[in-house]
Design goal:
It is built from 11 helices and no strands. By secondary structure, the chain is mostly helical. The protein starts with a helix and ends in a 5-residue tail after the last helix.
Length: 256
């Protein structure tokens, strides 16, 4: 499912039968048919083309958000776990404050501060996801720095930077990869929710959450406006969750 999604995102201009932004006043709210497999919307735009191009937006949103969260979370968790002391206390108290808010509420706060838009939604979702990576990384670093290979590196005078990035980080990255796979689905959901509320992608961008919002007033008249974008979100998030579960089984030695 993910390979199909990535294929659609990469080759969207070739696969999509119509321009996703092209308005056709004489084709408004057409039901699914051989000419328009997923029907048309309130402006006559082909829904299949918009769903295909929407995969580009949603994947970019998920990957950028997870990249922001993972890079900052690993950095914070690594510094807190390895250096300890007041640095650990200060960084972890900031993470505790972020954890006090539900992730979607935290993302809403940052979007209100930054302003609506797809780029700001990516940043907001990424910042809201930092605590998970920071806490996991800190716990892994605290465990890893007690290993003999780390103590040996420190004993021969290796700089802290070398110990951290050459000896510890490569051995603690697996849990973060699992969280990233699961987190990408959560980020896509959060981004779609922000777009649904009008705080993420803005019209006429073909984004699944925005398409859901635009179709909610026509559920009894044109069910396909919300059904197909919602189905795309469900399939994508389910595939990412299954990938995360599979990666967890692969990286967990207790399940080997």
């Amino acid at each position: 499912m993910l390979l199909l999604l990535i294929f659609c995102a990469v080759f969207a201009p070739v696969i999509a039968p119509y321009d996703p932004l092209a308005v056709a006043p004489f084709d408004i709210l057409l039901p699914p048919s051989p000419d328009h497999w997923m029907g048309t919307d309130t402006l006559g735009r082909d829904m299949l083309s918009r769903v295909i191009f929407g995969s580009r937006v949603s994947l970019r949103l998920g990957l950028v958000s997870v990249s922001i969260a993972m890079s900052l979370g690993i950095l914070i968790g690594s510094l807190a776990g390895y250096l300890g002391g007041w640095i650990e206390a200060a960084l972890m108290r900031v993470i505790d404050i972020l954890l006090a808010f539900p992730s979607l509420i935290l993302a809403l706060i940052f979007v209100f501060a930054l302003g609506p838009g797809l780029t700001n939604a990516m940043i907001a979702v990424g910042i809201a996801s930092i605590p998970a990576y920071a806490r996991v990384t800190r716990a892994e670093v605290l465990s890893a720095k007690e290993n003999l290979y780390v103590q040996a590196a420190e004993a021969v005078g290796a700089p802290s930077r070398t110990v951290m990035f050459r000896h510890i980080l490569p051995n603690i990255i697996a849990p973060n990869i699992v969280i990233a796979a699961l987190g990408t689905g959560i980020a896509i959901l959060a981004g779609s929710a922000l777009s649904f509320l009008g705080l993420g992608a803005q019209a006429p961008t073909p984004e699944w959450g925005l398409m859901l919002s635009q179709g909610r007033g026509f559920m009894s008249l044109a069910w396909w406006l919300s059904f197909f974008p919602g189905l795309a979100i469900m399939i994508t998030v389910m595939a990412l969750n299954l990938l995360g579960d599979g990666l967890r089984d692969v990286f967990d030695p207790r399940l080997g």
